[in-house]
Amino acid sequence: MMDRLPDVLAEVAAVRKDLGYPGMATPFSQLVGIQAVLNIVTGERYGTVPDEVVQYAAGFYGETVAPVDPDVMDRIMASARAKEVLDNPPADPSLEDLKKQYETQDEDELIMRATVPQADIDKMRAAGPVRRDYPLLSSPELEQVRKLMTVATMPVVEIQSSGLNVNLRRKS
Fold first, then answer.
1. Measured between alpha carbons, how far apart are the two ends of the chain, in Å?
2. pLDDT in tens, 111-170
């Protein structure tokens, strides 16, 4: 359905307006994009509504920047899953509850534990500290680029081979 991409892009703008102009960063950009795709693919605006869009419209992610269009809100809340989603709001523990639950006073630790699954935390910790030293890539072509840049006087150097395309520009 690549031929429908222009329709989807136009629908993204319409959905964003309908939903009260959410910021286009994770997770809101995904909510807007998926809803736009569903609207175009199904041929019915808000005929299929993901749970996360119901949660967003219901305020589970916080207040919207602008109000959700009332007609769109009615369609979202009339969707097949809306009642079940609304009957199961996310937990909203207090800071003190989180400190007791995770047995720490460290707020960074609390944020991580409240938002990242324990299995992922275990993998992260098992991996050890973040590497801060990365070996430079090396290949015969890159070695030639390094040598060339030490002697080149031109502001732009471009090298192309079958497996490499390098374009370097000197800062002025």
1. 45
2. 898 889 999 999 999 999 988 876 666 777 777 777 877 888 888 878 788 887 878 887
Q: Give the CA dihedral 33, 38, 44, 47, nearest 10 degrees.
A: -100
Distance CA 145, CA 69 (A): 56
Write out pLDDT tens, residues 61-105.
999 999 999 999 999 999 999 999 999 998 888 889 999 999 999
Question: For residue 4, what is the DSSP state?
Answer: G
Contacts of 134 (CB under 8 A, 6+ apart): none
Q: What is the largest CA-CA distance in the chain?
A: 70
Interatomic CA distance for residues 139 and 148, integer angstroms:
14
- For residue 153, the SS3 value is coil
Report DSSP state, residue 9: H
Answer for the pair 31, 50: CB distance below 8 angstroms, yes or no: yes
pTM above 0.70, yes or no: no
